[in-house]
């Protein structure tokens, strides 16, 4: 059985604001982007799981577009890395010099709004085609092997 995936853009593109870039996303849009992004990597997630993942992420961000890394627990950071792999999140770091001369790095997670919009507007059609190649193995088995022993 072959699985063929076709990726195309929906006709209902996101309407950009005056600046050309929208600075927010919705929970539904993020959920759809997560599901689509994982599908593009041959991983599946149910709609309910994708919605839970989106809620989990949004709970960290609230109305902001960035979160400081050191507020995350290790398991949360693991899920953020998965979201970075599909493009939903990005990382950024800022360096500053402390009063005593030491360098201090601050790591941030940032919502990748343009990629979320792009993934949310993609449509993935998955069709399964049964290939005769799968069944040719049975043709190679001799007929006397198919007889039931009595």
The oligomeric status of these chains comes to single chain
- Name the structural class: alpha+beta
Low-confidence stretches: 1-18
The shape is: elongated
Biggest beta sheet summary: 3 strands, antiparallel
CATH architecture of the domain at 27-123: Orthogonal Bundle
Helicity level: 25-40%
User: Strand order of the main beta sheet, please?
Assistant: 2-4-3
H/E series = EHHEHEEHEH
Name of the level-1 CATH class of the domain at 27-123: Mainly Alpha
Tell me the span between the first and last alpha carbons. 35 Å
Q: What is the number of helices?
A: 5
Number of strands: 5
The amount of beta strand, in percent, is: 15-25%
Specify Rg, calculated over alpha carbons.
23 Å
Query: What's the CATH topology name of the domain at 27-123?
Result: Arc Repressor Mutant, subunit A
How confident is the prediction overall: mean pLDDT? 79
Question: What does this protein look like?
Answer:
Helix content is 35%, strand content 25%. It is α+β, with helices and mostly antiparallel strands. It has a domain at 27-123: Arc Repressor Mutant, subunit A (Orthogonal Bundle), CATH 1.10.10. α1 (27-40) packs across α2 and α1 packs across α4. The radius of gyration is 23 Å and the shape is elongated. It starts with a strand and ends in an 11-residue tail after the last helix. InterPro entries: DUF6015.
